Amino acid sequence: MIYLDNQATTPLAPEAREAMLRHLDGPDGSAFANPHSPHRMGRMAAAAVEAAREKVAALFPSGGRVIFTGNACEAINLAMRGAQIEGGIAISAIEHAAVKDTAKVLGDPEVIPVDSEGCVDPRTNLPSGVGLVCVMQVNNEIGTVQPVDQLADQAHAAGALFLCDAVQGAGKVAPPEKADMIAVSAHKIYGPKGIGALWVRDGVELTPQITGGLQEGLRSGTLSPALVAGFGVAAQLANERMEEDREHARALWDRALELFDDWQVNGSLTARNHANLSIRRDGLDVARLMSTCRNVMFSAGSACASGSGKPSHVLKAIGLSDAEAKSTIRLGWGRYTSAEELEAAARDIKAAVKEQELWV
Ligand code: PLP
User: Fold this and answer.
1) Cβ distance 2 to 297 under 8 Å?
2) Smaller CB count within 10 Å for the chain: N or C?
3) Within this chain, do residues 230 and 253 fall inside the same structural domain, yes or no?
4) Residue 251 belongs to what domain range?
């Protein structure tokens, strides 16, 4: 099987797995302690959590604190529901459901449009009377990189806080320096599923959303040292290997553009994450393609949107028709994808498409 769905999740880095196993078992089976217990074993577990927190903190700007959460959805919910703001919420038109659906529950959000490449204009006039602006760093469906620093400046000038969903940007692009809150997820950077983090700038106050011990200060629940340790090592690798991972992704991107040269690319060709390719082909039956290419793991639009039957709101926001949106596939490679795998996947996909087109 060939895995080309790295925006949905990434495989666990062997180094992160190693670190997790050490915390599941320990050399003498003594690593199970609760990191919030005051005894010696508890303090050893807490020390491991704090060492990992420092590694995760390196994914963010300085001058803030890291709160571990169950995933990025929870981090985003804590930020949006917990922010002590006056006024409404503005979100970009291409936010992940974690932001989009939370904003809807909290009120009637103002929507900041994107252009046909999926970019928010950095000079855009933010709606007035807004207390929180949410714009993601890198889009999960089409890979567009947003001018989040300029947008954060604008939000601040308007007296609003700025939340950046950096789930798809962490380890790929520099952190959003000017955001007030940043959400990330371990399983998108070769760490384990079941843990994320919210970074909160010093001075920004949040109201806890999960009560019952407040082990994380703002969030309750016993931390898992194994998940935290895996996240820490994954974050450290993401920082150390950023350039190498980026170059690898770029080489695969260049090859993919050659392999799919008769498809249309969705999103910007320049302001983008080069590990993501969203492409479409007139008349393509994506569901049939996915069932024919059972050895290639890829996505129709985004993993969250595919299966819903509705055309993706991201593809609609960049101006695609329903038919164009529905004839889109997303290929996402990563650190462990080889050029041979990409070539083999392209062969399978193109053969299946040819077969479809013969019968039209
Ligand atoms: N934001 C973006 C851009 C994502 O791609 C995802 C996951 O697909 C999330 C948020 C939610 O992350 P998690 O799975 O950690 O809740």
Assistant:
1) yes
2) C
3) no
4) 2-8+242-358
